[in-house]
Amino acid sequence: MAAMAHAEVTLPNVIGESMVLQQGMPAPIWGWAEAGEEVIVSFAGQTKTTKAGDDGRWQVKLDPLKANAKGQTLTIKGSNTIELKDVLIGEVWICSGQSNMEWSVRQSANPQEEIDAANHPNIRLFNVPGHTVAPAPQEKGAGSWQVCQPKSVTNFSAVGYYFGRRLQKDLDTPIGLVGSNWGGTRIEPWCSLEGLQSVPELEDIAAGVKERAEKSKTENVKVGGGTPSAIFNSMVSPLAPFAMRGAIWYQGESNGNEGESYYHKKKALVQGWRNLFNEDLGFYWVQLADFRQPNDNPAGGDGWAKIREAQRKALEIDHTGMAVIIDIGQANDIHPKNKQDVGDRLARWALHQTYEKTSIVPAGPLYKSHKVEGETIRVSFDHVGSGLMVGKKEGLKPTEEVKDGTLKRFAIAGEDKNWVWADAKIDGNEVVLSSPEVKAPVAVRYAFTMNPAGANLYNKEGIPASPFRTDDW
């Protein structure tokens, strides 16, 4: 019986009924069988044949597929035959991070209304269950594909679902969403060894990961949820090499006391996942929300100010984007309930950049440059869209323009590094800052604090400006 069971063709869980296969790029199908066994894979008019290697692993790559919302059957034949029904072809995204990505539709704003309306047969959900770790990359992991409907969406990532819903609506193509999340985790456990090795500043962390992986070949190595690469090894690696278009990421609270070091780790995360899934994997993350009681010191720099700066700096990485949400957090809740706007703002980036829908403005104003003009400083921005405005955002309602409103949370300083609140005025697509207390200003800070309550610079598309500073003091 054991020999028979071993001889049978088996598949990883991520290849299953009701899945979505990525369109437009080679789609790997893989599994295990008896060494040397011939395996034939048939799908969408294609037939691919291979043999299992000495280790029993086999893999074929389907030629790039065209989007198809009609379910088809994928057949795998070896000593046994597996038929996977209702397979769609479309766009596949992994949705990952700590608790704010894990936070379910049921736990978020308007839960019953959203759950009741979640009949989307062309959206498919795959959730990696449990919280598991391993000292070295694993090949097999748990989970199954489900059609998006009220029952299946209830406990799925709210941010992931609202992101996918917007993509499905705008692209009119099937969407596959893979959720892999763990509340309270740092970024390091999600980074692969390869990713860590690609960033010189992280060589010490990489060396530890490599040592544990080598050691695990001969002895039992214990790792936990905080061990670098341990979550990647167990909750991300088994998904590969499933073809995916991109990733969305909401994490950082557990690294909240960091600055520049988080930027290096973000580079490692992105590079590692690109090595795994797709060298041009779109990667879009959420900048941390406003949280805790506001601080009225114009210098700011407290709490999450520096990690938000690192998240903004990481936009230097090609084919990435960042959803700014300093206007929809909750001072008394690290898990703000409004996940609809988070998913929508991430989707804007994907639609604009990954899918080249350039008419969609992807973000709110992002600091570009500044120049001193006598007693004033003029600041220029990218992503001004159809113009800058003073805005007000309440709950799930669209941002409203505040006519004759006053910009808040801008501070300026002179060479003495003494920060004061600035008079800030919109001048065309720029903001001009001044203060009677600073005759020769040299630097600007905006919303550079844990909870920048009242920060209200938006573009007319209703998306908030990211916090920034022009100094490195």
List the helices and strands and how they pair.
Elements: H1 2-7, E1 20-22, E2 27-32, E3 38-43, E4 46-51, E5 57-62, E6 68-77, E7 81-97, H2 99-102, H3 111-116, E8 120-127, E9 145-148, H4 150-153, H5 158-171, E10 175-181, H6 193-197, H7 203-215, H8 230-236, E11 246-250, H9 260-276, E12 282-286, H10 305-313, E13 320-323, H11 340-354, E14 366-373, E15 376-382, E16 388-392, E17 400-401, E18 410-413, E19 420-421, E20 423-427, E21 430-434, E22 443-446, E23 457-459, E24 468-469
Parallel strand pairs: 1-7, 7-10, 7-11, 8-10, 11-12, 12-13
Antiparallel strand pairs: 2-5, 3-4, 3-6, 6-7, 8-9, 14-15, 15-21, 16-17, 16-23, 18-19, 18-22, 20-21, 22-24
Helix pairs in contact: 5-11, 9-10
Describe what this molecule looks like in 3D:
The chain is α+β, with helices and mostly antiparallel strands and 473 residues long. 21% of the residues lie in helices and 28% in strands. The chain has 11 helices and 24 strands. The protein has helices at residues 2-7, 99-102, 111-116, 150-153, 158-171, 193-197, 203-215, 230-236, 260-276, 305-313, 340-354; strands at 20-22, 27-32, 38-43, 46-51, 57-62, 68-77, 81-97, 120-127, 145-148, 175-181, 246-250, 282-286, 320-323, 366-373, 376-382, 388-392, 400-401, 410-413, 420-421, 423-427, 430-434, 443-446, 457-459, 468-469. Strands 1, 3, 4, 6, 7, 8, 9, 10, 11, 12 and 13 form an 11-stranded mixed sheet that branches. Strands 14-15-21-20 form a 4-stranded antiparallel sheet, with no helix packed on it. Strands 19-18-22-24 form a 4-stranded antiparallel sheet. Strand 20 and strand 21 form a beta hairpin. Helix 5 crosses helix 11 and helix 9 (260-276) packs across helix 10 (305-313). It is globular, with a radius of gyration of 24 Å. The N and C termini lie far apart (69 Å). Residues 1-5 have low confidence and may be disordered.
